[in-house]
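Today's session is about reading a structure prediction critically. Students often jump straight to the picture, but the first step is always the sequence itself: look for stretches that repeat, for charged clusters, for runs of hydrophobic residues. Only then move on to the predicted structure, which in these notes is written as discrete structure tokens rather than atom positions. Here is the chain we will use throughout the hour.
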Amino acid sequence: MSATVGKRYDTAILFVHGMGEQQRGDTLTDMGEAVSEWLRRRLVEPSDAPTIRCATLRSDSQSTAAAAEAEITFGASEMPIRWLLKESRWADSFRPASFVETMLWGVSVGPWMMAYQANALRAGGPARRCCAGLRVSAKPCRPTAS
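Below is the predicted structure for this chain, in token form.
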């Protein structure tokens, strides 16, 4: 069972890994260090520096449900602020596509993707896209002059 069950936190951040060969805990370690450094640079008092507590990166069991998590506390010691950082992994939830499946997908989708991009380039910007039967313009946002 998770060490964080039943605890209350001021903020919780969920990190979901991207594509690749990440192992359990890799995304939490990389992103958790970035969050910790970001906090360290923004806190006024050095004594308020973030402290990582209750970090669980890898489980001894082979359960895919065991998520990597860490607790960061910072601020005044009498009223610390607690953040929960948690990692979600979905890579093991799907069967990897075979080479043949990947090639069939590329052959069936590739021409449509190239045609879409060619149309966008010819139009001088992002192509209009159809979403649930509604025409939606994909114009970039520009700040208005004040």
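Discussion point for the tutorial: The first strand starts at residue 11 and ends at 16.
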